[in-house]
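Cross-check.
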Amino acid sequence: MPPAASGFTPKTLAFLRALKRNNRREWFHARRADYDQHVQAPMLAIVERLADDLARVAPDFVASAKISMFRPWNDTRFRPDTPPLKTHVAATFPHRALGRMQGAGLYFEVAPGHVWIGGGLYAPDPATLHAVRSHIASEHRRLSTLVAAKPFRSLLGAMQGDRVSRMPRGFDPEHPAADVLRHKQFLAAREEAATFATQPDFYAQLLATLTAMAPFVLFLNEPIIALRREAERDPLVADLANAERRRRA
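Predicted model, tokenized:
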């Protein structure tokens, strides 16, 4: 494996910036070797290292080349105006009981202008959203403790995500966690300049941030896993859930 596989370098960022200016298939194919060496190989090395370290500090999450890494191509089947290539490189780390792009997960990306490390629950379907809100309503003190933990606050700040303007139906507007229950996304993130990815301590910072994020994401996944198990006991519900997962894949 080339030396660049040990971590992202200024050549990684230079390639991503050039790709943003020249987002064409022919340009990318002519420079595929540079992409493999300076973008793909460093990401693969980081994912493989996380496979060992997450198994130690956050064993419920999966890190592997097959599951975590994204292809460089955008899906343009339904949006022909979409550029053919992603201008960032990213990896996702799902809960092993739920699988890729299901439930709440960990994620990071390196783009021409930023590094984003975080995760959570981005676009839950209505049944999942209701289950998570119900879980928060009954376990809000535990959630408050998780997001108030020093590693979470120092590395990720506060919980983020879009909210609805009114309290969702079936929930008490006077509930102590009313502000959280209005969320329709449950996210936390740390954003840094793109050059953060090339610092010598980048991997240590990445691992520390994902580790701080993990208990919050595990909390969000508790009702989702319960919902999945309930669906698996009911064949009709399971068929509907599988159809929804295929639609959202």
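The chain has one domain: 3-248. The beta strands are 89-94, 105-110, 115-121, 186-192. Passed to J.P. for a second look.
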